[in-house]
Each structure stands twice: as C-alpha cells, then as structure tokens.
C-alpha cells in the first residue's frame, strides 16, 4: 500500500511542478514556517536520483522543491485567505483553485475575486455587428425589463438554493452586494441612452451598440454569476456534508491516504487498476510459463539437447561435404553437385492429409518406413507415449478436469512426442553415420515417410485434445479463454511439426555424406 | 519433472569420454539417480543427463553428454566436444588398455574443446581393488603432468562420484569468477541464466505464420 502511494506521488510530480510555477509569487509573501511533510523528503530523493541531468537542471529542480512545500503549508494553515483575495493575478487564482481544491476546503470562496474582474472582459463584438442599428430601438425598450428580470432570476435562483440548502455565509452576502452594485450601474446608464433613441443615425447606432454591449455584459454576468452561485452553493453543501463530524476532512483524507500528498483521486484509482492488471497478467504468465510452456517442456523431455546434438552432427557433415566440393573440379564437381541436389529433392515432403486413427495401423506404417533404412531403430517410445495420451483422454471426466489442466496435458503431450521424435532423428543420424553400406535413396524415402507419419500423428493428437477442449465450451462461462487455449494447442502442434521438419532437414547432410 | 526448471542461473555442458566399458554411463546414472545400473547397454552416439547442483550459493544446471565409447562411434562423438565446459575422462583401473588410451582421448579433448575447459580424470571401478591393473600413483602422476584433476571413483558404490562432478563445477565456476572463462564466447560451454521462457505461449501469435503445417 505504501509503495503504491509513493508511486502515485511520483507520477503526479508533473502536476505539482505546474502548480509551483503559479505559486511562486505567493511564497515570497512570507508564509509561516513549514513543518516537514513526509512527501517532501520523498520528493527530494526522487529528484536526487536523476543525477544524469546537468547541474543547471538540478538547481532549477531544487528551486522548485523549495517552492513546493510552501503551498502545502498554506493549505494546512487557515491564514491564507487574505492573501488569496488580495492577489490581483486572476489566472493564478483560477488555476490555484482548480489544482488546490483540497487545500482550500475550509475557505471555499475565491469566486468573488473573479466577479470583480469579469466586466473588464472584451465586449462580444460579433453580436453587435449582427444585430445592427435597426434592432437597437426595439431592444432598448426591452433592456430595462430584461435587466431587471435577469437580476431577479439570478438572485432568486441563489436565494432558492441558499434557503433550500442552508443559510448564506458572510462571504456570500458580500458577494451579493457587489453584484447589486453592478446591476445598479447598468440601470443608471440606460435612461440616458433612451433619450437619444428618436434621433436615429450614428449617435443612435453608437448608443444602441453601447446599450446592447452593456446589456449583454450584464446579462452575461447575471447568467454566469447565477451559474457560479449555483455551483458554489452545491459545492459548499457537498463540503458541508462531507465535513460533518469530520472537520478538515481529516478522517476521509486518512481513509484515502492522501494526507499531505494530494494526488488526484482518479490517478490513484487508475494506477491501482493498472497495477492489479499487471499483477494478474504476471501471475497468469508465470502459471503458463511453469506449466504449459512448450519450449521448457520440450527441454524437460530432452528434445532441445538432442536437437542441439543433431545440429552439431549435421554441421560436421556439412563441413566434410564442403571440403570435398572444394577439392573437386570440372566434371567431377558438377556430378557431385548434381548428386547433392538429387538428395535434397528426394527429401521433399509432400503434403499428405492422411487420417491416422488406428494405433496398430500407425505402428505398421512406421515399421515399414523405418525398415528401409536398415538400421536398428524403433519408434516404440513414441507409440507408447501416444497411446498413453489417448488413454488419458478416454478416461477423462470433463467435469473434473479444468480447461487449464486439459490444456497443460495437451501441451505436455505435444512437447513430449516432439522431443521423442527429435531424439529419434538424432539417433537415426548417428546410426546412419556408422552404417557400413549406405543406400541414400532408400534412406531419404524412408525419412520422408517417417516424417509424414509423425507430423500426422502429432496433428491428430492436437485435434483430439482440441475436441475435448471444445466440449468444454458449451458449459463454460470463459468461452474466450477456452478458445485461446484451443488456438494455442493448434499453434504448438504447428510448432511441433516445424521442429520435426527442421530435424529432418538437418539429416540431409548426413544422407549426402553417405552418397559420396 | 517440470518442477522448477528455471531455478538455476548457469548451465554447464559436460562431456564424458573414455573407452568402451569403463563405466561412463554408470557414473552418470549414479550421479543423476544415485543408483547403480548393473547391466548397462552400450550407448548409441550420445545420451544425456541433467542435474541441478549448487556452487557458492548459485544454482547450476549440469547438462551432461554421455558419449559412446565404441570405436565405431568415435567420429560421431567427436562432433559433440565443442562447447564443453567440463570433460570427464574415464578409465577402468582394472584394465590397463583403457588407461593407455588416455593420451589419445586427451588429444581429442584438447583439440576439440577450448583452453578453459576443465578436464577431470576419473579412475573408475575402484571398488574392485583386487583386480587393480593401474596404480593410483602412476595415474596421479599422469594427471599432474597434464594439469588434470584426478580421483579414483566407483560408480557401483558411489564413492567420489559426486566429488568428481561437483569439483569440476567448482573449477568452472572459479574460472568464471576469475574472468578466465568468457561467458559470451559461443564455445565456453556455459550459459548464464536459462534461456528465458521466451514467448508467452498464449500472447505471441505472430509466430503462427512461421511454418504452417499439414495437420
């Protein structure tokens, strides 16, 4: 929990920096001495780790750091209110309010400062231009009424809300006084413009524009103020409810563990979610890495080391062939290369979708294929493993076996069959190399057959496991998960096939050596 | 069997060599299974054994290549020396001919491995004291002259078997620590850290296109 907090804090640094820039001016105005805040020290260490930055940046950073603790102090002490109000920089205040809302919960007011500055905003020129002078007369007449209505509506609105929610506080009353003064101003200017309305022409236009501008300004103000008032009142009420029996929101802050660090709540939640997701994924990955990782199972069944040995054997033969080719020239070289190519052609596999179902049929086919090589090699281990897997599937109670266990068994079976097959290829290579009378064409033909049978056998096994997994689909809520597992079984089956084909390819130099 | 296949930080490749019938496969079996195999069939080409041991607090997986001793496999087994970090050269103390062939085995080892490969000489069948044909002293002298480590052991009783395999591992580990053995060299016979579980079996679907099968 603690680590996650500090992580949140670090990731929120950028925001804090942005905040600092705005606050600089205020800090100079001598805030009370700070008590050390835990987050502060953490932050320093965080900055210090970035030693790769040049010194200039470091200095800059440490400046920011010094600044940083001050706003926190302001937030904690309640004496900052006058400062905020006297600050003329509106944008500063605005941003401060947004970012620092947790600081200011006990003096929840700075909207007033804004109201005073609002009228100085540029007049909405577009509206003037569109409405033109002939509308001005009509509007002039309406102005007074509208102004009155707006004032009443906005005040009424806040009245309703305030009486509905609670009594207005002094700050609220002060704000309303200012507002009333504004309304008054607007009303005073209106009669004077009214007197010139019958003249028409430029004066009229100008005054009309002025009036409309005024009208728009005041109306806009009323609307904005009304809206702000409403928001403010709602906000206040919310804070009031939140603070009931919990002054300064101490308990709630403690609950959220954001005391003094002030990260945004959504930030914490997002990070917590990400963290949880990552953990889940890691757990899942570890699970699969341990129990259903094809490569490690293939290694456990010694497939990898046999493949490595087969590669070494193959390489040794290739070196021998290369030396021979280098030593030849002319017709002999051409003939030799032709022989080499013929062997490669003999080893081309044809896609044969032979359905293998019967165990004895497979054994017979394999025995026939192997016999052509005239070496003492048997595929009993492969056949036994296949048979065991089939028996396991036959005795399987789908209700008891989870899809994960089924998948694990599938991957393990595929890895084991492949490892055994690769081991056989390796043994064939060794035995062919010590064989006295080679018959390369027969050997190649035999190996093509063996490879075809073995890939069909493995594909068949994968299909059987996948079918079992599919049976689980109907009564499972994790359809996506099961589909992923089925896909994975087929994927590893394809992987097995490519291991076998690779092993076969590695035997080609062994066959070629036999032909010379 | 797949329990904790990743709990090691090094893989050392060993190769066991020596004349036919000196007990290479039995030594391996004794080391990996702690059992004596009384009627051991002839090894074809090469067979493998693995065991995870601990040296200086580091878990090391020994990948042991047990070669065929039959002369007809000599050319085949020569292909397997490359990249061995340790070579266990075995003779039978009851058969002088197996001792006499040591220099030939040693030549092969020196030619086909790298200079940092640790070579350990094992005089097997030391339980058969009555049939001794090679004295400890002469073998010790041979070992010293050639800079080999040496023990007499018995695959039957298990005497010194563990020591021979572990001592070799310690020597290899020491070479790594001293920087004499370059882990990055392809032929060092040492892999640091197991090959990672690699791709996540379920997430990496792009390999699907790699090689589509006829299944």
TrEMBL record, chain A:
Signal peptide: none annotated. Keywords: Phosphoprotein. The keyword RNA-binding does not apply. Pfam families: DUF719. InterPro entries: DUF719. Residues 17-40 are annotated as: Disordered. Belongs to the FAM114 family. This is Protein FAM114A2. It comes from Photinus pyralis. The lineage of its organism: Eukaryota, Metazoa, Ecdysozoa, Arthropoda, Hexapoda.
Automatic annotation (TrEMBL), chain B:
It catalyses: GTP + H2O = GDP + phosphate + H(+). InterPro entries: P-loop_NTPase, Rab14, Rab_GTPases_membrane_traffic, Small_GTP-bd, Small_GTPase. Residues 193-215 have a biased composition (Polar residues). One of its GO terms (biological process) is phagosome maturation. It is a lipid-anchor. Keywords: Acetylation, Cytoplasmic vesicle, Endosome, Golgi apparatus, GTP-binding, Hydrolase, Lipoprotein, Membrane, Methylation, Nucleotide-binding, Prenylation, Protein transport, Transport. Residues 188-215 are annotated as: Disordered. The keyword Lipoprotein applies. SUPFAM superfamilies: P-loop containing nucleoside triphosphate hydrolases. It is found in: Cytoplasmic vesicle; Early endosome membrane; Golgi apparatus, trans-Golgi network membrane; Recycling endosome. It comes from the Eukaryota. Its cofactor is Mg(2+). Its main location: cytoplasm. One of its GO terms (molecular function) is GTP binding. It holds the Pfam family Ras. One of its GO terms (cellular component) is early endosome membrane. Its EC number is 3.6.5.2. The keyword Acetylation applies. It is an enzyme of class 3 (hydrolase). Belongs to the small GTPase superfamily. Rab family. PANTHER family: DRAB11-RELATED. This is Ras-related protein Rab-14. It comes from Photinus pyralis. The lineage of its organism: Eukaryota, Metazoa, Ecdysozoa, Arthropoda, Hexapoda.
């Amino acid at each position: 929990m603690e680590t996650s907090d500090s992580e949140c804090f670090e990731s929120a640094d950028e925001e804090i920096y942005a905040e600092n820039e705005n606050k600089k001016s205020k800090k100079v105005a001598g805030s009370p001495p700070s008590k050390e805040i835990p987050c502060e020290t953490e932050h320093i260490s965080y900055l210090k780790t970035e030693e790769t930055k040049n010194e200039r940046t470091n200095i800059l950073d440490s400046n920011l750091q010094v600044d940083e603790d001050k706003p926190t102090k302001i937030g904690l002490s309640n004496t900052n209110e006058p400062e905020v109000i006297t600050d003329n920089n509106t944008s500063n205040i605005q941003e401060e309010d947004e970012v620092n809302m947790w600081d200011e919960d006990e003096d929840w007011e700075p909207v007033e400062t804004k109201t005073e500055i609002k009228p100085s905003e540029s007049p909405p020129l577009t509206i003037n231009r569109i409405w033109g002078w002939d509308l001005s007369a009509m509007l002039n007449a309406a102005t007074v009424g509208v102004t009155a209505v707006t004032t009443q509506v906005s005040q009424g609105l806040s009245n309703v809300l305030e009486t509905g929610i609670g009594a207005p506080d002094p700050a609220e009353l002060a704000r309303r006084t200012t507002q009333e003064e504004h309304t008054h101003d607007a009303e005073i200017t209106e009669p004077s413009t009214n007197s010139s309305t019958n003249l028409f022409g430029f004066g009229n236009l100008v005054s009309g524009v002025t009036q409309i501008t005024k009208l728009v300004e005041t109306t806009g103000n009323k609307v904005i103020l009304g809206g702000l008032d409403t928001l403010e009142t709602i906000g206040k009420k919310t804070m009031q409810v939140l603070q009931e029996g919990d002054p300064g929101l101490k308990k709630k802050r403690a609950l959220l563990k954001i005391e003094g660090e002030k990260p945004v709540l959504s930030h914490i939640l997002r990070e917590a979610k990400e963290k949880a997701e990552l953990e889940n994924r890691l757990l899942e990955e570890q699970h699969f890495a341990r129990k259903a990782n094809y490569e490690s199972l293939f290694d456990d069944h010694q497939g990898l080391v046999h493949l490595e040995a087969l590669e070494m054997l193959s390489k040794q033969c290739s070196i021998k062939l290369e030396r021979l080719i280098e030593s030849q020239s002319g017709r002999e070289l051409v003939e030799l290369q032709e022989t080499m190519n013929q062997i490669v052609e003999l080893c081309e596999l044809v896609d044969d979708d032979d359905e293998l179902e019967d165990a004895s049929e497979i054994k017979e086919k394999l025995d026939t294929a192997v016999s052509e090589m005239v070496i003492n090699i048997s595929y009993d281990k492969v056949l036994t493993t296949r048979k065991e897997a089939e028996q396991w599937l036959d005795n399987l109670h789908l209700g008891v076996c989870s899809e994960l266990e089924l998948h694990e068994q599938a991957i393990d079976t595929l890895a084991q069959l492949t490892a055994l097959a690769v081991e056989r290829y390796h043994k064939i290579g060794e035995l062919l190399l010590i064989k006295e009378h080679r018959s390369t064409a027969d050997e190649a033909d035999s190996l093509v057959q063996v490879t075809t049978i073995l890939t069909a056998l493995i594909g068949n096994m994968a299909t059987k496991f996948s079918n079992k997994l599919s049976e689980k689909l109907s009564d499972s809520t994790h359809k996506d998960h099961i589909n992923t597992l089925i896909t994975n079984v087929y994927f590893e089956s394809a992987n097995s096939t490519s291991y076998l084909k690779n092993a076969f390819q590695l035997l080609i130099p062994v066959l070629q050596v036999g032909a010379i | 069997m797949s329990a904790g296949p990743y709990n090691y930080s090094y893989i050392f490749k060993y190769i066991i060599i020596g004349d036919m019938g000196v007990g290479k496969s039995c030594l391996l079996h004794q080391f990996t299974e702690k059992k004596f195999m009384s009627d051991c069939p002839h090894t074809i080409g090469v067979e493998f054994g693995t065991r995870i041991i601990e040296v200086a607090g580091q878990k090391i997986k020994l990948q042991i290549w047990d070669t065929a001793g039959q002369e007809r496999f000599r050319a085949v087994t020569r292909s397997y020396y490359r990249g061995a970090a340790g070579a266990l050269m075995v003779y039978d103390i009851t058969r002088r001919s197996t001792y006499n062939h040591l220099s030939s085995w040693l030549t092969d080892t020196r030619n086909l491995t790298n200079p940092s490969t640790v070579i350990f000489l094992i005089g097997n069948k030391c339980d058969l004291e009555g049939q001794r044909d090679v004295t400890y002293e002469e073998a010790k002298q041979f070992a010293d002259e050639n800079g080999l480590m040496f023990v007499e052991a018995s695959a039957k009783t298990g005497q010194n078997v563990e020591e021979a395999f572990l001592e070799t591992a310690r020597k290899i580990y020491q070479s790594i620590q001293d920087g004499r053995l370059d882990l990055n060299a392809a032929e060092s016979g040492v892999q640091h850290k197991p090959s990672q579980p690699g791709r996540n079996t379920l997430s990496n679907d792009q390999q699907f296109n790699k090689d589509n099968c006829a299944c």
